Fold:
Amino acid sequence: MVLDVLIVVALLVALLASRVLILTRSRGSVLCCLRPMPGERGWRVGVARYADGQLNWIPLIGLLPRPRHVIVRRGLVVSGRRKLGSGEFYGFIEGMTALECRNGQSAFELAMGYRALTGFVAWLESAPPGAYLDVS
Structure:
């Protein structure tokens, strides 16, 4: 009985490890943390993938490989940025930058490292002519 439980646990750990490797090593993916509403829930670690005019955010731990949040570039408003301190997310993402964003009625924060932040800003600025963008 104990051996069966250990085998199941080992298989689950192997599946989780393979998911993390596949998501983080796939082309065009960057590590990105998301907090849906500032102050409501904690940070969730995931992977952001750029596709056409949207950013697909896929949680690092989960069952389905589809995006949980789709952030559309058109109408996206970045209202502020701040450095994350040691008190947030148990210090795991210390030194990362959090962006306060709003897209329509939904408000959220994205946290990413310097390189991912540079890519995100470039993605925002590369919108087609005539697209409304508001980056403060």
Observations:
- The radius of gyration is 17 Å.
- The chain has one domain: 2-135.
